[in-house]
Amino acid sequence: MNFSELKDFLDEKADVYNNPEFIQDDPVQIPHRFSLKQDIEIAGFLAATISWGNRKSIIKSAEKMLDIMGNSPYDFVLNHSESDLNIIKDKSIHRTFNGEDFSYFIKQFRKIYQENQSLEDLFLIHKDENNFYHSIERFRAHFLGIEKHRTHKHVSSPYKNSSSKRIIMFLRWMTRKDNRGVDFGIWENIDPKFLSIPLDIHTGNISRKLGLISRTQNDWKTVEELDLIIRKFDEKDPAKYDFALFGLGVTKELF
Questions:
Q1: Are the C-beta atoms of 96 and 64 separated by less than 8 Å?
Q2: What is the average per-residue pLDDT within 211-222?
Q3: DSSP of 167-215, one letter per residue?
Q4: Are the CB atoms for 135 and 124 separated by under 8 Å?
């Protein structure tokens, strides 16, 4: 396919998969259970953080966290007690993300929300930046704190050449505005043009099969390689192609 044909093909597939039916089997359904902005942010960030492995398992584990928080994430974050955290620390959550990690997240969320109305404040893009490379690191510094903790590994670092797939996915959920019923678009101060594709085995393999990228690793350098081409397809809303690439990967339409 030439450039024009490839763009038309991906536009068509993005349109097919960007609909509410997509929510039923995807972790994005977790924040969709809420209407309060902060509830959406917390539930979304937690669901994105544990988004590796089987999607049904991810959703089940995310529901476990919601249950622990009384299905009121923001209220629980602001008003939990030390004994609440001690109880959580002994619980099993999702694979290597355990109760200790979850309790650490809750403590850090409270610090953030005592100083900010929204997590968006920690992800703002600075002048002369064209993606979330530095933004994610600023967020990590605020959210994780200076003191080393086992939980730091669950918030990946593009400075260490990680694709930061789960954070990029969360950013798509919060930032994209298209009224299609999947992404929320509740962040007003970050332009969707800065978004990238959440790069994982599905989107990576499909991107290579379509000739969008040449690098073999799914790392940050490959994220930026993919940025170059998808932003030529749509400079205002490049992340919409995540629906096309992920959908093609899951359905194995091209294999």
A1: no
A2: 96
A3: HHHHHHHHH---SSSSS----SSS-GGG-----SHHHHHHHHHTTS---
A4: yes
Name which of 81, 83, 44 is nearest 65 in CA terms: 44
Q: Helix H segments across the chain?
A: 3-17, 37-49, 55-68, 73-79, 82-89, 99-115, 133-144, 165-175, 201-209, 220-233, 241-251
Q: Closest Cα partner for 7 from 255, 240, 251, 203?
A: 240
Helices 3-17, 220-233: inter-axial angle, 10-degree rounding = 100
The residue written with tokens 């403590």 in the block is 107
49-99 per-position pLDDT tens digit: 999 878 899 999 999 999 999 999 999 999 999 999 999 988 888 888 998
* CA 25 to the chain's CA centroid: 16
Which has the closest alpha carbon to 69: 98, 46, 37, 97?
46
pTM: 0.95
Q: Using the structure block, give the residue that is written with the tokens 């024009």.
A: 4
Q: Residue 224 is encoded by which pair of tokens?
A: 């930026």
Q: Residues 250, 202: contact at Cβ < 8 Å?
A: yes
Nearest to 10 by CA among 169, 243, 255: 243
Q: Which long-range contacts (CB under 8 A, 24 or more apart) does 153-156 make?
A: 154/49, 154/96, 154/97, 154/101, 155/49
What is the rounded CA–CA span in Å between residue 84 and residue 30?
Answer: 22
